[in-house]
Amino acid sequence: MSTLTTTPTAPTLLRLATAGSVDDGKSTLVGRLLHDSKSVLADQLAAVERVSRAKGLGHVDLALLTDGLRAEREQGITIDVAYRYFATPTRTFILADCPGHVQYTRNTVTGSSTADVLVLLVDVRTGVLEQTRRHLAVAALLRVPSVVVAVNKVDLVDYAEAPYAAVAAELAGVAAELGIATVHTLPVCALSGDNVVTRSGRTPWYDGPSLLELLEAVPGASEPTDGFRFPVQLTLRPQEAARDPRHVEYRGYAGRVSAGSVRVGDEVVVLPEGVRTRVAGIDLAGRELEAASAGQSVSLRLADPVDAARGELISSVADAPAPVTEVDAMVCWLAERPLAPGARVLLKHGTRTVQARVGELLAGLDLDRMAPVELERLALNDIGRVRIRLAAPILAEDYTVSRRGGSFLLVDPQTQGTLAAGMIRGHTVFGNDFEPAAGWEI
After folding, report:
1. Which residues fall within 8 angstroms of residue 14, CB to CB, at 6 or more apart?
2. The dihedral sign for the CA sequence 108, 185, 398, 369
3. CB of 345 within 8 A of CB of 339?
């Protein structure tokens, strides 16, 4: 276990996701976290108590606070990603409770894709399973900034230190193989609340923080803030300007700032055309702003008439990404139909969607040995490295530099269903020869 030294000095937002194998107690842990932090409304708790009595349980089943689907309650498993919101005096939290069954790994990818912290549950009696390795690999692929492992059900081993220490050591080994720098581990009993919100006297050999204390102290995401990125979603041309000559013509570009910040007067470049201009105004809900930063949805007005449509990017000039036509990427395959070389897909990057073709399947990841293996195709939940050729350029960045600029989705051209989540590790600048990224790094 590592010691944290960074503590937020003001209330901040933290996005976290839970993961783990089936029956490791994820929903119970989340329910306990919500209950003990006093984030459950009285009527919600009363409803859970009624359902628990109807099921003949001798305790309140806090897992019902998150297992909201009828199928989930009947089967006792989590199927969909359940989002919950709660707050403490130190922080506000958005929590994604992800399913543990291998069939729903795609939901874990969804829930973890925007997470600052992944809370992974492991049953102290079973230790690291294949699904545990898969979830750690997903965390490594998605570059989740922090990983916390709650070794659950320590009450079933009489709160002994040795079983916990063995699991923690095994986890540290797997994390090191995947390139995860730091994993914070702690013993918990989600059913009775040991070390969830408050520290437990039944684990005197553990002198670290509770799970909530850990989540209040862990640093948030460290997405680069130097480069300004603004994917254009929509061009705004109010109809009044066209009908009434008394109205001053308005042309704005609506979207969400994905990285960095911008101020009125800043020089920007519209990509992929490469047209340079300046920001003449920033509008938000009828108000004019002096500046906008990552996470804000605004409308930008530019000093010069620019033909910028959906899918184009407004960027700071000094570090503007170059258009790329071929990418080397890690993908988590999420579809029932396998992926084979030559497959034609749509690649969605930010607000831009282009036709693409899978050129090569470079390698797959063996989750038992944590090593590359040769594969002819990727099946459901497989993780592999592929080369993808694009019919039109995108403004991509390396995922290790920017999670937003380096992520994409593969989409079925016929059904529009999501096929894979991808992370770019190397690319071809438009017009140059392709040089794949060296080595195999998760």
Report:
1. 91, 92, 93, 94, 116, 117, 215, 218, 220
2. negative
3. no
**Prior bond to 272 cis, omega within 30?**
yes
**Helix extents (H) in 142-278:** 161-178, 211-217, 239-243
Instruction: Describe the chain by its helix, strand, coil percentages, rounded to 5.
Output: 20, 35, 45
Torsion of CA 48, 52, 53, 57, to 10 degrees: -150
Domains of the chain in start order, with CATH, are 12-217 (3.40.50.300), 229-316 (2.40.30.10), 324-429 (2.40.30.10)
- Which amino acid is residue 261, in one-letter code? S
Residues 109-119 have pLDDT tens digits of 777 777 899 99
pTM of the model: 0.73
pLDDT digits over 379-431, tens only? Answer: 988 888 999 999 999 998 888 888 888 899 999 999 999 999 898 987 655 44
Query: What is the DSSP secondary structure assignment for residue 24, as one 8-state letter?
Result: S
